[in-house]
Each structure stands twice: as C-alpha cells, then as structure tokens.
C-alpha cells in the first residue's frame, strides 16, 4: 500500500478529487526528499514548500507531520519487501541477493532517516513491515547458502547487520566519503559473503 493510500484510508469518506490526490502525492515525495536532505530537523513548512502547496493545504490533506512521516516510513519498508520479493523470483540466488542488497541499502538509509525524524516511534504496521523484511532476508540468505554461492558459516542475522553498515556517514576520522562510497562498501561486504571454490 502506498503512503497516499494509507493517508486516504485514515480518513474514510468520499473519494478525493484528483487535485487533492495529486497534492497528497506531492507531499509524500516532498517528505521523502526533505528527510533525505534535512534529516530530523524537517518541518511541515519545508515539506509544504517542496510540494508547492501552502501550509493550510498541508494540514487539510495530512493530520500532522508525524502522520505523514509514519506512512512514508511504512511505504519505504514496503518497497524494501517488494525488492526482496523480486530478488526471490530471480533463478540465480546470488544474483537475486546482490540485487536486493543494493536496493535495501538505499532504502534503509532513507527509512532510518524517516524513523529518526519520527523519534523512533513505531506503529503496528511498522512491526508487520519489519517482520516481512526479516523473513525475506532469511529466505534470500538461505537460498544463496543452499546453492553454495554464499558462505554457509554466516548467520542470516549477521547479514542484516553487515548490510546496515554499508551506508555510511558523510565523514569519518577527518575523511570525506566518496559520492559512490556505499557502492564501494557494498562490493567489499559482498566479496566477504561470496563462497570461495
């Protein structure tokens, strides 16, 4: 379910006009980009400006910034689950896993930014999303290990932490991350996970 659909489901009633739905879509896109760039300091005013709507329109369409961020977080996690489902359909378990890993790292960085902006507050649907994601990751790792393409001595839970460590801060010990730093980190992690003949 998309963030827009989640917002609409919270307020049952007549189907909104097309322009109202477009405003909601713009607010969701704006919230995702604002959190990615601003982080925890994102405001309703900034999201409204990025969406090209007034603050009044923001509050007519969305009960609160927290509500908007919550549905955005759930949407991002659902996208990660969908990426895992696509990876599970790949006949090559290792290729499926590596495709998921790349998608997951980018979505995880976004979801962590939204969750941080929410102050770590969760919902029942958030727990469902996380449970679905854990189950998919366990399956992906299991498939790759069963066919011999991934090292069998690494528990799937460790893989979750390895992937979480791929997305880095912009700076560390006085060094600035390269624009493709997460790609380079991911290649190193995958190189450590692949089974050697």
TrEMBL record:
Region ranges (Disordered): 1-21
Judging by the UniProt lineage, the source's domain of life is Bacteria
Q: Which GO terms describe its molecular function?
A: DNA-binding transcription factor activity; transcription cis-regulatory region binding
Gene3D superfamilies documented for this protein = Tetracycline Repressor, domain 2
**What keywords appear on the UniProt entry?**
DNA-binding, Transcription, Transcription regulation
* Name the UniProt record assigns to this protein: TetR/AcrR family transcriptional regulator
Coiled-coil segments on the chain, per record: none
Per the record's keyword annotation, is DNA-binding included, yes or no?
yes
- Give me the positions annotated for DNA binding: 43-62
Xref: Pfam families: TetR_C_43, TetR_N
Ranges for domain HTH tetR-type come to 21-80
InterPro entries with a match to the protein in the record: Homeodomain-like_sf, HTH-type_TetR-like_transc_reg, HTH_TetR, Tet_transcr_reg_TetR-rel_C_sf, TetR_SbtR-like_C
Question: Organism source for this protein?
Answer: Nocardia yunnanensis
């Amino acid at each position: 379910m998309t963030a827009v659909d989640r917002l609409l489901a919270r307020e049952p009633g007549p189907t909104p006009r097309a322009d109202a739905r477009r405003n909601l879509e713009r607010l969701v896109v704006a919230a995702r980009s604002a959190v990615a760039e601003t982080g925890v300091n994102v405001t309703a005013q900034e999201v409204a400006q990025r969406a090209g709507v007034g603050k009044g329109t923001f509050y007519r369409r969305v009960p609160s910034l927290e509500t908007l961020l919550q549905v955005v977080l759930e949407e991002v996690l659902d996208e990660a689950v969908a990426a895992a489902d696509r990876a599970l359909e790949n006949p090559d378990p290792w290729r499926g896993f590596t495709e998921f890993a790349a998608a997951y790292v980018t979505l995880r960085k976004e979801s962590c930014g939204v969750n941080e902006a929410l102050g770590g507050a969760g919902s029942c649907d958030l727990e469902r999303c996380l449970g679905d994601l854990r189950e998919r990751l366990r399956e992906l790792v299991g498939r790759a290990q069963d066919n011999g393409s991934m090292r069998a001595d690494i528990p799937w839970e460790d893989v979750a932490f390895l992937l979480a460590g791929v997305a880095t801060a912009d700076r560390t010990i006085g060094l600035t991350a390269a624009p493709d730093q997460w790609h380079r980190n991911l290649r190193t992690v995958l190189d450590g996970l692949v089974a050697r003949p």
